[in-house]
Amino acid sequence: MTKLQLGSIPIFKRSVNLSLMLTSSLLFSAPSLAVQCDSLPIWDDGTSYNGGAQVQWQSSAYQANWWNLNANPVNHSEPYQEWSLIGACDAGGTNAAPSVTITSPASNAQLASGNQVTFSALAEDSDGEVREVKFELQGAQLAVLSSAPYQVTWLTESGNYELVVTAIDDKGASTQSAQTFSVVDASNQPPVVTLTSSKTRVSVGESVQFAAEPSDSDGTISKVEFSVNGALEKSVTVAPWVMDWISPAAGSYTIQAVATDDKGATSQSQVITVEAIASAGGKCSGATTYIAGSSYATGQNVVNNGELYQCLVGGWCSSDSAWAYEPGVGQYWQDAWSGQGACATAPNIELISPVEGETVLLGSDVTILVNIEDLDGTVADAEAFVNGTSIGLVTASPYQWTWNAVGQGSVDLKVIATDNEGNSNQLNTKVSVTDQPMVAAITSPSSGDVVAIGKAVTVNANVSSLQSEVAKVELYANGLLVSGDTTAPYQFFWTPTTIGNYQLSVISTDLQGNTVTSASVGVSAKSVIQPKHKLIGYWHNFVNGAGCPIPLNQMSKDWDIIDIAFADNDRNSNGTVHFNLYNGDIYSSCAPIDPVQFKQDIKELQAEGKIIVLSLGGAEGTITLNTDADETAFVSSLSEIINEWGFDGLDVDYESGSNLVHGSPIQARLPRALKAIEANTGGDMYLTMAPEHPYVQGGMVAYSGIWGAYIPLIDQLRDTLDLLHVQLYNNGGLANPYTTGAAPEGSVDMMVAASRMLTEGFELADGSRFMPLRDDQVAIGLPSGPSSANSGQAPIANIEDALDCMISLTRCGSIVPTQASPKFGGVMTWSINWDQHDGFNFSVPVKAKLNQLNAN
């Protein structure tokens, strides 16, 4: 093949004659010519080229026929176009095209709308450099990147999509990779609304403005309704979302706003209580209530927010610019008014008995007792009402009435107190009247709940005796006695053994022999079978680079075990642990997680067979277990948390911040404490551990400090331990008994070596031996993507090979177990949030592999 040196090629002019152009065009397009391209620049779409300029592009050489800009030589080298093809670059300069692989999202991934996701790709060039990487979605360009990491963020919208990523190398060769995925509508998020008021204490007839601030993260606000004492007062359909309201009479008023979004979801604001005073007493007697824009004369007195003011300048006092001249509030109010001090105040009333919501016995005498005081005068009288009917007027302390409880059900009690200036205030409460000497109710579970057979269900009951003391409370399931309790709080653990419907009730007895049976609570039990090989993930209870905490009902359904990260150690206490569900923060706009919905989501996930555990520790987690008192508080607080939130158990993830080392009180006390928590929560607590590998396999290298510090914990808890998923990341390669050097992070050998050491046992540095765990107790722990850990990321192919190696002894690397682990636990990852942020690049392929293995 003939080589043509570029220096011998004539330079074209703009005025080149047509016959020469045609001849040259034919010459340069001849396929028999090979061109030495090493010295030629790469064509650039932002560079202008004069006639005769020579470039290389996509393994061919071209020469400009005349001046041009942004004319791709490949598409503009036909006769009468801007470029002429000189020839293909010769073999000595053969350019290998770059490689490009889309790493996120996963193929055919299904994403939720309204989330920020990251598209990412890997691009390499074996014989040069990657010049740029282009991201295109549905044909529209998202970004052009000239250096790694090749990542683009995108806000998901419903629809089906194709992502195309093109890598172009320094010689113009290009390669494309395409991935299809879909975005579906997430469950509609209800709006959020807050309410503020200009005043909370007014005179009768005084105006108050209430301002609502609604927002909707995934839509728009269609209306805001304001209610007063539970009755609709005003509906607003456009901003500003305000209501001006004048109190019609003295008393206490509750105001609330309800926001509705464009999809019909609603949410309520907090309740604001406004006290309306009947009249301005003392020096405020006769003064009018200030209303912006009303006409006031110089020297006229007004009342605003319980204070007396005298007008200095009539024109300014009468201004409708409340922001400037509202007495005591406006920016320039002192130019218009003179403050005269506080008006008389109404009496304060404090309820002593009965307490709000108390249940009283039909026909019994009930004492109504209140404390009343007046800060600027004396109490004239107080009157009590039952369902609106007066039961007497009292003119001196003690302010007490006796009422014979008649009529069953809810009863409204009210006390109105009046002072020496005629100012009045009222207190309202409710009680219940029953003809039963005892009352009992199951508070959890709720009717309609679904529970799993073979798993302990916590049953809580409220019981009280109106004539005596409770002697015992017994739980029955479908009429059969389950267990009894003699001390409050009344709690039971019931384990359904067969599929079906159950009616739960409690029968209570007091010391006088009175008994009562609670209303039944109907639940259904179904068989919930966990997959043999599981996908385990950690859920963030905080904000970080992965974004906001994800509502549990918006998570991918691929997760089998969900670790809620994390519980919080009370540094100022003696071992107490708290669980503080994310409630917003000042550093982000992330919405709080609703605790009621969170608990409901846990129940629904458990009904689907998911396991939800609370994780203790984390990279910065601490623990206080130095004394018996610490241990007692630790056990008590975690038992209460599990019962309150409905967690299936605990995950132990204590790391360097915990000071868990050989010989520490934590190492000695934690196993005993965990066993006590299990006993307190029904005896069937799901227990997992996620130590870093120096704490476990590191015991082969040394057996002091942190090295092997988890071994005594595992040994004491191996009978109750459900899963041990050691973190194979952030700590370098794994020293093991099978290779002379450490198995590198992310390799098949590292995952197999770590798992084999746990399923076959290994020699510890002190000469003792770690005895094998069951294969179903062992799982692999890995980071989900590039941002979730500093190191240890494993290619999906390596994860699949390691699973096959452990389960069926196939596709192993240099390390091969002595026997298969057919019940191998699965794969854990940090984290659910990072995985969703990265487009489910970990969970989708790994879950697919686990499903394949579970089907065998």
UniProtKB/TrEMBL annotation:
Keyword Signal attached: yes
Claim: Signal is one of the keywords in the record: yes
This protein's name: chitinase
Family: Belongs to the glycosyl hydrolase 18 family. Chitinase class II subfamily.
PANTHER family from the UniProt entry: ENDOCHITINASE
Annotated GH18 domain residues: 533-853
Domain Cadherin: start-end pairs: 106-193
Source organism (scientific name): Vibrio maritimus
Pfam families per the UniProt record, alphabetical: Big_7, Glyco_hydro_18
GO biological process: carbohydrate metabolic process; homophilic cell adhesion via plasma membrane adhesion molecules
First and last residue of the signal peptide: 1-29
Sorted UniProt keywords: Carbohydrate metabolism, Glycosidase, Hydrolase, Signal
A GO CC annotation given for this chain: membrane
Listed EC numbers: 3.2.1.14
